[in-house]
Amino acid sequence: MTGxxxxxxxxxxxxxxxxxxxxxxxxxxxxxWIRSRVGIKTRHIAGPEExxxxxxxQAAGKALANAGLSPDDIDLVLVATSTAIDRSPNMAARVAxxxxxxxxxxxxxxxxxxxxxxxxxATADHAIRSxxxxxxxxxxxxxxxxITDWTDRTTCVLTGDGAGAAVVEASEEPGIGPVLWGSxxxxxxxxxxxxxxxxxxxxxxSVYRWTTSQxxxxxxxxxxxAGITPEELAGVILHQANLRIIExxxxxxxxxxxxxxxxxxxxxxxxxxxxxMALSKLVERGEIPSGAPVLLFGFGGNLSYAGQVIxxx
Length: 313
Hints:
alpha/beta; five-stranded mixed β-sheet; single chain
């Protein structure tokens, strides 16, 4: 085998929905203010009985079912998250236990905040290419509302909970392009999850300026590494941070024929869960054809970024 490919996806969101009107009863804000600044209408909120690993488990189960596989067909589990409060067992181990895996899979959590899923997908691709794994379960899962300051109207309007998962397996024809990844360590302070208990905070204007000025060229470079032009893309799935970031970025990338994911409108910012969840929904609705090239690009905490072009399952 010379590469790997995504063969199936799945996603999960809690049933409880928090609207802009609900938030207006909690902090000094309103629907017009929220929509005009971040483009979000609703977000899903997990209850106490839905920790990060439960969200991940639900998405993983759906991805496996869509692939027609059993848990024991998997030999690598990667969970991208930045909201796992417990250090051990890690979320990957807890998901594997919930799924009933008995195949002794390798289990790793990856914390690169909002670009965690694309980092994890690249890691799975590398493991499969090297022969260290044959089939991987790659999950992005975050419970952002558990680390939200509900008195801060600049951040509490953003966050939601959810998870997305992908099954990745060895393939003769590579279906996951080379990753473009990196960071801006000196700007790591602009997105933070710090303290005891941990709380999410960010410098929104700094994030907006950096993403809208720097990311278009990086995204085009990810396409170049995959050997395609932006015009050939059938889909663009950026980290669902803020609609006012996503829309100008998609325009500047030059993907004029692509479906652009706008799941942030209904789901809010779900950090590592946002890209796989948005992609899973587009595939489920049949908005991107199987085999079509799709750009995934995550960015956020640490001002880390990772992107790759994949072939849609």
